[in-house]
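Dataset card, provenance and construction

Sequences and ligand SMILES were collected as paired inputs. For each pair, a complete structure of the chain with the small molecule in place was predicted and serialized as structure tokens. The example below shows a pair involving magnesium ion. Curators did not alter the output after generation; any descriptive sentences attached to a record were derived from the structure itself.
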Amino acid sequence: MSETYDFLFKFLIIGSAGAGKSCILHQFIENKFKQDSNHTIGVEFGSKVVNVGGKSVKLQIWDTAGQERFRSVTRSYYRGAAGALLVYDITSIWLKFIRLKYRDARTLASPNIVIILVGNKKDLEAEREVTFLEASRFAQENELMFLETSALTGENVEETFLKCARSILTKIESGELDPERMGSGIQYGDASLRRLNRQQQSGKKPDCAC
Ligand SMILES: Nc1nc2c(ncn2[C@@H]2O[C@H](COP(=O)(O)OP(=O)(O)O)[C@@H](O)[C@H]2O)c(=O)[nH]1
Ligand SMILES: [Mg+2]
């Protein structure tokens, strides 16, 4: 059976090496912790359909998978992304590196990209180096959303993707984001196309809720 969805959003996972990016992707897609984390270089990929505010949204997620070690994540990786998870490890010193990654994302990605700062390994409270407060301050200064997660326990992993998707959807609905603009990282799915067609055939305006 083919999947039907209203929108497709392209997401990226960026951040420091070893922060748990691959594990977050795996936990989100498979609902379990990835034990054998190998460091194969190349982009890993996953997709999942989620329900956001009554709309079904297919998230197509790309993981840098090792490229971040060489600081060579390229413009083409960032191209056409609607959302990004900027991941750091709460048990290691982070700020300089995250600032660099954040700058890369801001210069290489679409200006409309929605970024969520993600402090992973929340389960390792005893080894914490980055306080919730300093990270939320950084998020606030840069107008990022922010959550702490654990790819190990699964805490907040799905919520992170949903929060980012919800923000994109709100921007589409308010007109701030245009899905039809080149490189928006957003596509209409079959479900919205069918709805649009029906509305056009019956002569109603596409945004008419009657
Ligand atoms: N305790 C704990 N360990 C984690 C968590 N997420 C990832 N790890 C571990 O951190 C290491 C790096 O994870 P990985 O996903 O490969 O990081 P990546 O380089 O950012 O893709 C691995 O040994 C994982 O088992 C987490 O939430 N909690
Ligand atoms: Mg990885």
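Derived descriptions for this record:
The longest helix spans residues 157-173.
Residues 7-199 form a domain with the Rossmann fold fold (CATH 3.40.50.300).
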